[in-house]
Amino acid sequence: MRGLKDRIRQIAPYVPGEQPKERDIIKLNTNECPYPPSPMLLAALKEFPGEDLRRYSDTEAGDLVQALSDVYGVPADQIFVGVGSDEVLALAFQTFFTELSDGEHLLFPDVTYSFYPVWAELYHIPVRAVPTDDGFKIRREDYIGQQDAGGIIFPNPNAPTSICEPLAFVEEIVRSNPDKVVIVDEAYIDFGGESAVSLIERYENLLVVQTGSKSRAMAGLRVGWAFGSRMLIDALKAVKFSFNSYTMNSPAIALGAAAIRDVDYWKELCRRIISTRERLSSGLRELGFSFPESSANFLFAKHETISGEEVFQTLKARKIYVRHWNAPRIGDHLRITVGTEEETDALLAALQEIVG
Length: 356
Ligand code: PMP
Prior knowledge:
Blueprint: E1 26-27, H1 39-47, H2 62-72, E2 79-82, H3 84-96, E3 105-109, H4 116-122, E4 127-130, E5 149-155, H5 167-176, E6 181-185, E7 206-211, E8 224-228, H6 230-241, H7 250-261, H8 263-286, E9 289-290, E10 298-303, H9 308-317, E11 320-321, E12 333-337, H10 341-355
Parallel strand pairs: 1-11, 3-4, 3-5, 5-6, 6-7
Antiparallel strand pairs: 2-8, 7-8, 9-10, 10-12
Helix pairs in contact: 1-7, 2-7, 3-6, 8-10
């Protein structure tokens, strides 16, 4: 007989980076921005009319969509917004990849954002993890002319590798798969890559997903979005409205719009993080770490002699948190978020003692 437990969905969930409660730690484990969000967001937070909370939020998140439309020059009906890009991506998996034909798979790199296999499992989507090369680079040819491909997703820059591919590389994959949805997850694009948003006018099958969590310092507000053809955006909206009309709350819509409109502050945050990343890169190299050239707000570093686990644990004992996975191919790597200048000094000093 089927017991209660057998009727309940069992799933191994995604494991996010730790969010320790203590304040006196150096937190370089979840690719958050080390600086506060835009002063315009903070002003909007102060001015937010709390009494409005008795009403439901705007199902279309119109202010936020309009801000994105103005800043990115994309028509409002080609923009979809959600509760962080994780929600946008989860809805996209459900919308575009749950109707694959027999024998088809969703393709993504073997070393990539570890949420992809979890959503695939959640929605019963068959997947094929495509090996990256020895330097963790995505091979373009592996995503072209694949008989079993029913859809494609990859981050650019990829995470946790930090490697960014040029726009022509992305375009060739999109162009070669006109009858499949190709999702480019651009969570880290603002730290040195060229966005594929310019391609959405030409390719109906392309969805470009971005987030306010990294380069705009609003991870806690949960604001993400996607740009794409009307066909893809309308399909995403239909699924969202079949799930929850009010995914985004009104403060997130108002504050998110304020932050998106503050283009100067956003660019300044990116500039500072890129500059600290370059300093961190030379410091780590001097200490015997190697890593691909990063176009993100983190480095994917491996020490020449000491194991990833050991460096991770020793740093943690000193209250410096970085990310480490006990996973095939990447067990000796650490993903280190670029922090403030002072955090970078403290990290390099600690590593000097550990590996020096
Ligand atoms: N994509 C990638 C590649 C990420 O690393 C992250 C952050 N964990 C996300 C998407 C989701 O970010 P958020 O939900 O905060 O927008």
